[in-house]
Amino acid sequence: MGLFGNRENPEVVALRQQVGSAEATIAELRGWVGQLRGVDASAREAELRALRSAVDATRREHAEVEQRTRDAQAELVAVRSEVVETRELALLQQVGVYDYAHPLEDALAYKNTLAALRKRVKEMARTDAVSCHVDWSVNGSAREGQKLGRDMAKLMLRAYNAEADNAVRAVKPHTREAVKERLSKTRETIGKLGKLMSISVSPAYHRLRLQEIDLTADYLVKADEEKEQARAERERLREEAKVMKEIERERAKLAKERAHFATVVTRLEASGDAEALVRAREQLAAVDDALSGVDHRAANVRAGYVYVISNIGAFGPDMVKIGMTRRLEPMDRVRELGDASVPFRFDTHALFFSEDAVALENALHHRLADRRVNVVNHRREFFYATPAEVRDLLVTLGDDHVLEYTETAEALEWRASSPDRRAAGAPALVGAGVDAGGDGDLSDDGE
């Protein structure tokens, strides 16, 4: 028994308790560790390794796909740089008003220029159309190497000329630039294939062939223009012949009437019937005035009628045709325009007589120039305008006498032919002045 008895220090007791608790916790943890290191832990580790392997494989495949995509995109860019758009529809949609590359006076001038250019092409083809530089030997012979180079250059030139000749034969006005671009691609391809021997088509020769394409396209357009002008001139002459025939017929009719009234006047002068004589002389004077008017119309080629007509069934409600005719009966011309070439007859909105119908027609066309339907062929005198708009223009342009004006189109044939009327079983128009039109075309007067 000690001096102070056998009672232990409380702090030591508490420390021993803490140590015991810690040892129990360690034992429990050791048990859990043992379980985790058992069979279940091994399976999870294998599963984890498989997942990591799959992720790595997917990453590698993704990288390969991305690389193939980049290669394909680069190849697509290269191919597109070699492709020339030659589809007819796409080129037609892009075409505008044709711009001559080499403006000349007429088709004959183009033919002569083309002949001279083709002579230069043949001369250059025999001399310096293609270049070749070979500084290596064949079978130990430098001469054989040079001969091989010359033969390859001739072969390349023949391939180029075949493409150029085909381009000249196939070119159309709207494909001109596409054909030239394709020939330039052919020249570039030949340069790549002949790079080892420094074979290339000379720039001067290539310019000549491109100029040949330009001139050929220009010639085609000019030839079409001259054909259209010739057709217009034939139409003008036919219309002029109709006018003169109509004038001669009217003149003969009036001359016959004048002879009749002159005879009546002579007899009345002899008989002394003063009252009847006055009436006969008035009738004779009226016939003389009519004859004078016919002679004036025959002499004045600019006098005539300007007409404004529409055809809702064929062209819609907001389109009019503005033309002129020298006919004594202008409606004859309007009826001709509504023949079998259009499904319905034209409606007349305005009919003007003018001593200078040509100038009046040109003034109307000028005021409506930005509304032309056909901006290439100005003989097609159709405009996007309403009859009321044209009437207002006519009022501002002069004080010529308006013989007829109607703002709303009757369009009897079109209205009677509407689907609703057909479904309702509407009867055909009989006795309404609607008859079958004869053969013909929708050409303008050309006067």
From TrEMBL:
Query: Keyword set for this entry?
Result: Coiled coil
UniProt-listed InterPro entries:
Phage_T5_Orf172_DNA-bd, SNIPE
Locate the region Disordered: 425-447
Give start-end ranges for the coiled-coil region(s): 48-82, 220-257
Question: Which intervals hold domain Bacteriophage T5 Orf172 DNA-binding?
Answer: 314-397
Q: What is this protein called?
A: Chromosome segregation ATPase
**Species name for this entry?**
Actinokineospora bangkokensis
Species classification: Bacteria, Bacillati, Actinomycetota, Actinomycetes, Pseudonocardiales
